[in-house]
Amino acid sequence: MASERPNTESKALAVNLDARRYGSFAEIGAGQEVVRWFFRVGAAAGTIAKSMSAYDMSVSDAIYGPCERYVCRQRLQDMLDREHALNLERLRESRGDTTAFFAFADTVSARNFHGTNECHGWMGIRFQAHPRDQDSQIIIHVRMLDTENSLQQEALGTVGVNLLYGAFFLNHEPDQLVESLLDNLSTRRIEIDMIEFSGIAFRHVDNRVMSLRLVQLGLSNAAMFSADGDVLLPSEVLRKKPILVERGSFRPYTNVNKDMLESAKEKFAAEEDVDADEVVTIAEITMRNLRANGDIDLRDFLERVDVLAASGMTVMISDYFEYYRLAAYLSHQTKKKIAITMGAASLIELFDEKYYTELDGGILESFGRLFKNDLKLYIYPLLDQETGELTTVENLQVADDLRTLYQYLVDKSEIEQLDNYNPEYLSTFSRDVLQLIESGDDAWKQHVPEEVANIIERRGFFGCRRLPVAKPTQPAVAPLALEQDLLAASSSALLS
């Protein structure tokens, strides 16, 4: 039987009783909700070097330097850097051999008096896992979902204690650390939509996997990372930007996937009020897709995202299987136009009523939610490999009782056929490409972009036979070196 999680009080006390831990707390915007726990449980004198709340903006600027936004990642990083550096500067010589120093910080916007603000915050810890160790760091972004300020502050204090406890006692088990962040809370109160590990204690941690864990554990419904593998905060990447999404399995990323996205982007950029230079393109993979064969296979997940990274794609992992839920999420992030590109086969599924039985209004309610914010669907044609016929928006078959609804959406240009596609790619299907890779048939390379083929072959993705690594050739012996060897051998012979 699994042991119960420690409560917030016992976690704070465990930190206070660990004689190695000593550091500072700096909190902006919601009082000193985290440090209060450590004062409350006792034995804080051995843990807290300093506690401060730079609540006033001018005071905050005087300490950490000016900034445009006070609840942002850069402000948090400035706080962590300065407070941790001060601890080391002041105390390293006197007690560095026995003390693992840390600095905890948060900058938060809790519910204001009128209830009109976004309730969110950045929180992090910079710490030494052991005395004299190199620094490690964890940063998270939280959203407070309680409707009362006092409840938000309470939840913030709890997640802060969880973060400190996890950093000190679970840093060797990052999966458990992530899972523990909502101990004694629930996803109805706090959402964690970004986490980043860095430093010596987390040198083997892949932050893309940690982003996946956030969604897998229900701490967030979506997570995002760049082609470089850097974790991103979706609300910052998508804020005030037009968004184009392609949903897929990307096993692997094929010429069709690339052509679909490029064709849709060309059409989308031509739309009124869409600046082509501002469009954010996203490759989205749903949790249902990752679980298609049962449990999530981390190797398979990383192979997919590495292939997308080779193509320069920003990746989103989401728990929004229903398109209307994805649309609602995206419309919450931006007021600019949103588009989703998909194949005709996916459009057929979109009009299948079996997916909407849980909604009181059924498919009509789902479509009302999907298209209410001027969302657009761009449709890539589907080739019948047996007959050679194309399924397009014009001839797509839907149920008779949905034909009027379908035609209405087409007439309003909310569903639009892509006519700028490359017909040479229509015979490419991911499942066939995957079979070719697994069978060792090099014909698969014709169906994927060159950069994708290179990484699949070089690293043996999707069951591909890896290219043999050429052994370095032995350098030729220079004449002078050969002469010296002969002289040395002669000398040895004379001496023996």
From TrEMBL:
It comes from the Bacteria. This is Nicotinate-nucleotide adenylyltransferase. It comes from Rubripirellula obstinata.
